[in-house]
Amino acid sequence: MKSIILDSTAAATEAALEPIFELSPINLLIIVTLVLFVILFVGALAVLKSLKTLVRVTMPELEEEQKAQIASKLEKKRDRRAWWNKVAGLNPMETEEEIMIDHEYDGIRELDNPTPLWFNALFYSTIVFAIGYILVYDVFGWGMNQEEEYLAQMELAEAERLAYLEASGSNVDENSVTVDLSPEFVAAGQEIYLLNCGMCHGNQGEGMIGPNLTDDFWIHGGEVGDIFRTIKYGVPDKGMVPWEANLTPVQIAQVANYIVSIVGTNPPNAKPAEGEKMEGRASDAAGEASAETEETVEETSTAQETSI
Ligand code: HEC
What we know:
The chain is mostly helical. Helices cover 62% and strands 5% of the residues.
């Protein structure tokens, strides 16, 4: 769709750049021919006119015949007008006397003008249309009614949205986010954190206005998905801003993973724990990611699965 629009605009600009008119030999030929035609046409008209004059002068009886023809044409025209008056519901002035109703108020009299044919036709056709409409959309269900059409459109839009997110690689949400502690990802998250979150949670996550993010205690859950959800929707009642509008899903995933990575770092001036202790959740995942043994790697993947 998009590309079609782009293509057509490109074609349009191209067309606009071309010279509008070029006097090539062929164009010249066309112009000359046209001019010749006009001259010939005017000449033919002149000849016709002079021939007619000739006929009138030499054979006057022919002219009488023509006059009769014109009269019958006028008659037909009058018939047509009468028919049109009927359709349009027009009453010529001459016939007004006939349709005058014989009451009168203060010298004001009333005409009995019938509803015009076209209006009645329109009116009855709306009734027929309505019956057809009800049958098609509501009785037999051949077409989609408003609600079905709305739902179909929403479905289409949702599919398009998902396709777009898929294409832009940002369809991550609180249900699909996974622990990703790769250095670039966490570093990107830290950058976002220092810019947006440090003033409330402390630059090392030790907690200030907002709770300590480095301990094992969580008010809203310590799984990466929980953290993602808290950041995305916020806790507006408690002073935690929803970040949905200001951070992209990928950015939220980055900063959530940054928080996972700082759990258990014990920064100085840590704020006392708030919420419930989460037994070996995000903090474990953070610890395990750096560990090398088979066993812990396996545990990490189970931790990731449970967070999905
Ligand atoms: C205006 C201050 C403020 C800013 C800015 C802020 N937060 Fe918060 N945040 C809070 C408060 C207050 C809470 C506690 C909410 C509660 O008590 O339910 C909180 C809670 C949280 C929690 C949940 C903690 C738990 O124990 O469950 C997380 C995670 C969090 N914030 C992350 C962030 C991130 C990431 C950012 C930056 C993108 C951020 N916050 C920006 C004030 C803030």
